[in-house]
Amino acid sequence: MVQGAGAAGGVVALGEMVIMDPITSVINDELCSGCKVCVSVCPYDAITFDAEKKISHVEEVTCKGCGACVAACPSGAAHQNFYLDSQITAEINGALL
User: Does the pLDDT value for residue 93 go beyond 80?
Assistant: First the structure.
């Protein structure tokens, strides 16, 4: 947390802007089983495990939206912003035609 605050302070001091990709992963707290599979597959180290709540959490600033956690999540708790499973299935079916 301290490193994040320091980085944010440095950006503000320089007057720079951080542009984030809107397509990031999100983990539904109610569905997360705490298995930590998402933590192990994230290539950007954008997912942390909250030991107190026993759930995973995505740091959206670090997340690049690759979807590795979404594909690996056995409980279906991980998903990407702006993408529903039905939309992805429709894209795949459209590509197969």
Answer: yes
